[in-house]
Design goal:
By secondary structure, the chain is an alpha/beta fold. The chain folds into 3 domains: 103 residues, Maf protein, CATH 3.90.950.10; 42 residues, no CATH class; 328 residues, TIM Barrel. 39% of the residues lie in helices and 22% in strands. It is built from 16 helices and 18 strands. Strands 14-15-13-12-11-10-9-6-16 form a 9-stranded mixed β-sheet, with helices on both faces. Helix 7 links the parallel strand 9 and strand 10. Helix 11 runs parallel beside helix 13. It is globular, with a radius of gyration of 24 Å. It binds iron/sulfur cluster. Iron/sulfur cluster (SF4) binds next to loops.
Length: 496
């Protein structure tokens, strides 16, 4: 499928993403009326006082055509921003009419963080009902998704208060880039542990140096930065040798944690790594949030996607964690795993309900470029968009029956059925780190291989910086990594 788009460059950002919502994998060419194409789109935006007006025209190879206009009062708006939105909306509505369907419940919200739009509208003084109406009219979002994202944004408001100290409150993420094996769908820095065993000890040594240097930078910052939360993820941190994990946790406690740190998470990406010894180490170090990630409670799927554990491992890890007394336990579940059905999701959620985690992170399967799945997807029995949406609905219903509320969400490219990822929580157990990092509301320092630091400067500009994802490069470039972190932190806390 070849689609040409003829639109001024200034309005072009985002149009291609909207086209791909309807035609994933299509070839999009910049509009030239002479190029042969299955569909030709022509988009113009201009001012006709007092309106900003977007006009679109669609012509297909088969001779079908369509026209559409969308307008917006020009007064008091960010003109460039709104012109781009109108251009995307015209493309969406034209293709919706042409294809007789709406392939994404998120309309033209193709970005990662839909809640940010809601926060902006709430900041501009719109009520929750007005926001939902705007999402439907101006972003083509379905009513249920508008309800979902508005509810989440309202929940988050008090965490994201625009207080002057916002830039002084930071979170820390520590990435451990090893796993027992690599899952079929994985795109994270996760090197099979046994194959890369020689890098474990030097990586941990380097990480301990970075933790110590970061602690020094935080303490010496003139604005007395306060560290709210520590999150150790990866990879699977709990697949380190017990002494190595113990050293990382002890170092985080010694150099990073302060009286202001109210949350300390360790991700047990693979339940079979949560031995009694590892759980004891986490508990003794004061970890208060543990993530036990089954992804599914179907043994045949676990095997098919390359996870080397069973449902019994999940149940055992949960029993150990409960006995140890962690305040909050999270479980991750994925909707849309190869070969899974709606019945499987119903069964998975029934089993999860029995285990009663305080947090549930519900993901939609995304076919990512860096995953094995990307190359095998045509051979895999993938659930349809409708089935995936039904799975999400079952999980949502179950979470709500348990008294959970959705409290953060984000979207990814290439998810089945254009669905989203949602964090659910029992009241009082919400993960601050997830809110801070997903909503980009605070500075989050990323330590370890592949970890990203997000610096929120006082002028509102957000700067991303990544550590090398390969453990050997991370070790080699450690001095540079530490230097960049010190500079980034200074920039983020500088007075404007
Ligand atoms: S457990 Fe997570 S990080 Fe590890 S391979 Fe699987 S998806 Fe990747």
């Amino acid at each position: 499928m070849i689609i040409t788009v003829d639109a001024p460059d200034i309005y072009r950002p985002g149009i291609d993403d909207v086209v791909r919502v309807f035609y994933p994998g299509c070839t999009i060419k910049t509009g030239n009326p002479d190029i042969g194409a299955d569909i030709k789109l022509n988009i113009m935006v201009d001012v006709q006082q007092p309106y900003l007006l977007a006009r679109g025209q669609l012509k297909s190879e088969a001779g079908e055509s369509g026209h559409l206009e969308q307008s917006q009062l020009k007064h008091g708006i960010n003109e460039r921003h709104e012109a781009r939105r109108l251009a995307r909306l015209v493309v969406f509505r034209l293709l919706e009419k042409f294809t007789h369907g709406q392939p994404s419940p998120w309309g033209i919200m193709t970005g990662i963080r839909p809640a940010k739009v809601v926060h902006r509208l709430l900041d501009e003084g719109f009520t929750a009902s007005e926001v939902k109406a705007k999402l439907a009219d101006e972003f083509a979002v379905t009513p249920d998704k508008a309800e979902l994202v508005t509810g989440i944004a309202l929940f988050q408001r008090h965490y994201l208060a625009d207080e002057p100290s916002c830039s002084h409150k930071v979170g820390v993420y520590i990435g451990i880039p090893f796993c027992p094996s690599r899952c079929l769908y994985c795109s994270f820095p996760a090197y099979p542990r046994d194959k890369h065993r020689q890098w474990l000890a030097p990586f941990v040594d380097a990480l301990l140096r970075e933790i110590e240097a970061t602690g020094r930078a935080l303490r010496s910052n003139p604005l007395s930065v306060s560290l709210s939360c520590i999150y150790i993820g990866g990879g699977t941190p709990t697949c380190l040798e017990p002494a190595q994990l113990d050293a990382v946790l002890a170092s985080a406690n010694r150099h990073l944690r302060t009286a202001d740190t109210t949350e300390f998470t360790v991700e047990g990406g693979r339940p079979e790594t949560l031995t009694a010894e590892i759980i004891g180490i986490c508990q003794a170090a004061g970890v208060d949030r543990l993530s036990i990630n089954p992804q599914t409670m179907q043994n045949r799927t676990l095997q098919a996607v390359g996870r080397q554990h069973t449902v019994s491992d999940v149940v055992l890890a949960m029993e150990r964690a409960r006995t140890a007394g962690f305040a909050t336990i999270n479980m991750d579940v994925i909707a849309g795993l190869p070969g899974e059905t709606v019945k499987d999701m119903r069964d998975t959620m029934e089993q999860i309900t029995v285990l009663r985690p305080e947090n549930l992170s519900l993901h939609t399967l995304a076919v990512k470029k860096a995953s094995r799945l990307r190359w095998e997807v045509s051979k895999q029995p993938m659930p349809s968009a409708t089935e995936t949406a039904a799975m999400m609905e079952i999980a949502r219903h179950r979470a709500q029956m348990q008294g959970m509320l959705p409290y953060y969400m984000y979207r990814q490219k290439n998810t089945l059925g254009n669905q989203e990822n949602i964090g659910y929580t029992l009241p009082g157990h919400e993960c601050l780190y997830n809110i801070m990092t997903i909503e980009e509301s605070h500075t989050v320092l990323g330590l370890g291989a592949g970890a990203g630091s997000k610096y929120l400067r006082p002028d509102g500009v957000y700067i991303n910086q990544f550590n090398p994802k390969e453990p050997w490069l991370y070790i080699k470039r450690l001095d540079e990594v530490i230097k960049k972190k010190e500079t980034g932190l200074d920039e983020a806390t500088k007075k404007v």
